[in-house]
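sorry to bug you again but im stuck and you know this stuff better than me. what follows is a protein written twice so to speak, once as letters and once as structure tokens for the fold. id like you to explain what the token line says about the fold, in plain words if possible. anything you notice is useful, everything is just below.
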Amino acid sequence: MSFIAEFFGMVLKNIYGLIGNYGLAIIVFTIIVKALLTPLTVKQTKSTFAMSEINPKIKEIQEKYKNKPEKQNEEITKLYKESGFNPLAGCLPMLIQMPILLALFYVFRDPIKYGVFVEKATFLSANGNFLWIKSLIKPDYVLAVLSGISAYFMQISMTPKDQMQGAMKTMMYMMPALSLIWGFTFPAALTLYWTVSNVFAVLQYYVITKPLKAKLEEEKSKSSGKYTKVKK
């Protein structure tokens, strides 16, 4: 983790050297990270679409074998294999984000140690006066609230209506709550990263993800049409 933190510190140092504003450097860094993770987001979108496709079949299995949990799990696993669906694919972007967040926690807590700033005087002059934020190394309560709100909008934007149940519905409320708690606890710099990351994810959904889902639905419709013609 120390190696990742030092690497992030070096990247932030270079971005700050170009921009000259610590808060803006964090925003640019966030956008770069999210852009690099776009292929994983596309994969997650395809996984979400596939889940929506097989959801009705899963419900049928659950209803059919509601008194036989072992048989139910066996049939669902079989359905996953037949459809080529990987339940973990949708979780991959979140799993990748966790080590990034942990490394950034160390960087933002002590940016001098991890090479963002060479000396304390430079850091102190760069640390405050970004928008309303007085210090990026301390928690900011306004930013914490914005983090929670952005996490909520991200969840409702990216979770399909047919999947808003069970664990997914819990996540829709748990993630904003956690974002709020983190914002009141962690350095404002980390909360800024998380908030911008959430906003970027929502924008990315409407620019990339939603058109991709429409394309997948169109391809499915065409393939269904071809199948019907062949059957006739």
In short: The chain has a mean pLDDT of 82. The radius of gyration is 22 Å. Residues 35 and 200 are 9 Å apart (CA to CA). The first helix runs from residue 2 to 19.
